[in-house]
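Lab notebook, bench 4. The sequencing result for the construct came back, and we need a structural model before the next group meeting so we can plan mutations. Quick request posted to the team channel:

Model the 3D structure of this chain.
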Amino acid sequence: MEEKSVTALACAFSRAYHVENNKIKIFDDSIARLLLSKEEYFQISRSMADGIGFFNPNFTGTDEEALKWIVDNQLSQTPLARGIFTETALQRAVAIGAAQYIILGAGYDTFGYRQPDWAQNIQIFEIDHPATAKDKKIRLEKGKIDIPKNVHFIHADFTKELWQEALIKYSCFEESKISFCSILGVVYYLSKQAFEKLVSILSAILPKGSTLVFDYPEEIKNTDIADERWSKQILLAESAKEKMLASYSYKEIENILSEHGFLIYEHLTPQQMTNQYFDVYNHENPTHPMSAIEHVNYCLAVKN
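Done. Here's the predicted structure in token form:
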């Protein structure tokens, strides 16, 4: 991608909207709103509300109600679910020795700028396309968000370039230290060959005990049974020129990881994710429940 990611910006908006409009927060990203100007936040809100006819042709209500319906039903579930899944796992990993956090396709991830006390002794490496990384730095500056000393930027399109060389040569990175690596919102846009190559590279870089976390689209053998929300996710990605390229069965994911020395320790389906992370929110909001997007699974694997 030559330009900054539109889907990454939409994810930041959805996290910001969730925090600003809900007392019960599935994932509390207190920084996301600061990455968006007032004008931009309004424009995205307006654009989303105007799109209600695409998302829900039978909807009746105000523009604000339309916006909330779209965010709660179509946009925010995956960013919120994978955020809490990943950062909960990261905390566990740090507690038992992980010293580095590698964020591949960092986009507008904000963990480094709201990091809790338990993360302040780890090194955080954000790896992303130069255009997105540059835009993020501008947003951080405009939002008056300090960049902590343990946050490092590595500019690379890791689908094309030898990004691993830039990481290995980075002065603060140590190959011998146990790392936690997240690949969120990325696997969708990689071919199967590119995904396996990425896993292979990470296996070569990461020492035993390191963790890999990612979300991925599950294989749907009969396209007629694909959920309507998932079908719209595919169309949205294509409209943003970020076409989804592959999907996987659990066995495929397990085989790819196993072949490169990773063992699955945790795997959640959408229903399991909804039960685990959305239950409290749904109990407090029975008329507006949220559920994880169908056909998106979450995986945590550890290097043997």
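Strands lie at 100-104, 123-128, 151-155, 179-183, 211-217, 262-268, 296-303.
Will bring this to the meeting.
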